[in-house]
Specification:
Elements (H helix, E strand, L loop, with lengths): L34 H19 L5 H20 L15 H12 L3 H33 L5 H12 L14 H16 L8 H4 L6 H4 L28 H6 L5 H15 L10 E6 L10 E6 L2 H18 L14 E2 L3 E5 L2 E5 L2 E2 L1
Antiparallel strand pairs: 1-2, 3-6, 4-5
Helix pairs in contact: 1-2, 2-10, 3-4, 4-5
Protein name: Reverse transcriptase domain-containing protein
Organism: Acropora cervicornis (Staghorn coral)
Amino acid sequence: MLSSKVQLCFRCTRTTSVKRPFKRQWSLLLEEKHQKLRAEFESTFHNRYAALAALQDDPETDTYSALSQAALETGETILPPTPRQNRRIPWNDADIQALREKKRLAKNKSDKQKLSHQLSDLYAGKVTKYIDEQCKIVEAAHPAAEYRVAWKAVKEISGNRKPNPPRIIGGSPQERRERRQIHFQTLLNVHRPNQDSSQAEFNPTPVSDLLPISTDSISPKNSIRHSRSSGTKHLAMTKSQQNSSNSESLAAQLLNIMNLAFETRTAPREWTKSVIIPIPKQGDLTDPANFRGISLTSLAAKTYNRILIDRVKPHVDPLLRKNLNGFRQGRSIVPFECYIGGDRVMLEGVEF
């Protein structure tokens, strides 16, 4: 009689993770030393944009979609990916690297073992020295109330340089996404039935008829300025592009779309959309009302709005009240305390 033991194992199919696209070095297009790369990018972009623009149904609203798609596809093809940043090890200095290279070149087994012990001792000594230096920084920062410096040193010692992600509760990601979507749709599309009929029929006079605001077409010269907003400077045309008036460049095509929107008063479809990022506040995170929505809009739309604001601001700013300080250059709404006649007074707006 024969007996056997059989074990069954059901293997699940391995799920392939979605590969994220590489980040591209878009800043290379702004450097003068990469003239060849810029010319190749503009040529490829022009051909791809012409092909996508011919497939669009509505040129007034779909042209920017073809522009952004052509720019992204050209960048994926032409621009090199951003180099990966290796993990920084503070105590990995030249002495450790030299001893590690010496161990790699050693041919005798006994020499390798000896160098291995030396490398371990040197590595442990470097780590101990580095931790002692960081501890001294923490001890010196505490009496001086330099808490930022102290916490930075603590994070360097512990290796926890990134904050821990918050624990998200409230069902599956799909359920949370649906609840937040319903919440923000209700919040943004609220209906006000008691609206005054006089306000609904109010037709204001265009501000261009009351003030000498320029209504000329947008030109590349002094139109797109460098600002603090992220990425605005990358849309500015370089001097070589302005002088050559190259209609194939990305900035020139973007200016054409801005002029089209300025003349027809019809914004591209992508400019009217925004991505809402929910930022958690205090309270029950299962309730969508405890999230603050941050809207991410198109960078081209922000640049277009900045151009219009720069045209309107010089004419509107002299008409505003002197005590109006919000969103005005050189002013602040931070409250200041002062004493007038022995009484404590809070000043809400102070001009510097």
